Amino acid sequence: MPQARLPDINTAYVKYRTEAIIALKQKRYNSMHGCLIAINALLPAEYQVIISTTDYTDLSKTDITYKCCTCEVPIPKENIQVFDLIPNSMQLLLHGQNTHKVWNCTKCHALNKLTSTRISQVVLQNPTFLGIVPESPSRTNGLMDRMRFNIEIERWGWLLLGELEFKMGKFRDDNWKRGGEDEDSSTIDYSLDDKDSGA
């Protein structure tokens, strides 16, 4: 990547970022959306944020496992089917419960009580930058939907901006010295950076 390309990207990036944040705060979501997409377009393909609800859902979902009390193998939640087990008359007399929530281990086929099952959940570390965001929410004409849309589009805007900041930082780090160690870095225009930080 030629070093001369970086000043143009820097200037445009700072301009779009400033406008995106202002538009986001002023609830001008069309402008915000346009600016964020423009920032993404400035980046080379390998640094761009992917916008895909399906891919984002797959990457960001939390893994929940149920540990079998017999074989101690963790079983993914999606493979577990919890059902009610009706106790026999002796269990009913001793415990006084009509039903128990239980599940069958898919590995050893043992019956496990849900109340005595160790359930583990693996969540993403915060912050985590996936390089993927879901598609932007859409709005319909209902009043409740409009209120929910405002919350969701604002959350989406900040999510995409965070991902773009991460990608832009990586892009600049990877290309800062690529043009040569002796190249004069004073050619990069910081004027808009100064204006942005003073705003």
Describe the protein in words.
The chain is an alpha+beta fold and 199 residues long. The chain folds into two domains: 129 residues, no CATH class; 60 residues, no CATH class. It is built from six helices and eight strands. The chain has a three-stranded antiparallel beta sheet with strand order 3-2-7, with no helix packed on it. The radius of gyration is 26 Å and the shape is elongated. The two termini are 31 Å apart. The C terminus is likely disordered.
Number of strands: 8
The gross shape turns out to be elongated
Number of helices: 6
Number of domain modules: 2
- Poorly predicted parts: 180-199
Strand coverage percent? 5-15%
**Helical residue percent band:** 40-55%
Order of helices and strands: HHEHEEEHEEEEHH
Describe the structure using short key phrases.
single chain; 199 residues; alpha+beta; 3-stranded antiparallel beta sheet; 6 helices; 46% helix; disordered C terminus
Topology at a glance:
Blueprint: H1 5-25, H2 29-42, E1 50-51, H3 53-60, E2 63-67, E3 74-76, E4 82-85, H4 89-95, E5 100-104, E6 111-113, E7 118-122, E8 132-133, H5 143-175, H6 191-198
Parallel strand pairs: 1-8
Antiparallel strand pairs: 2-3, 2-7, 4-5, 5-6
Briefly characterize the structure:
The protein is α+β, with helices and mostly antiparallel strands and 199 residues long.
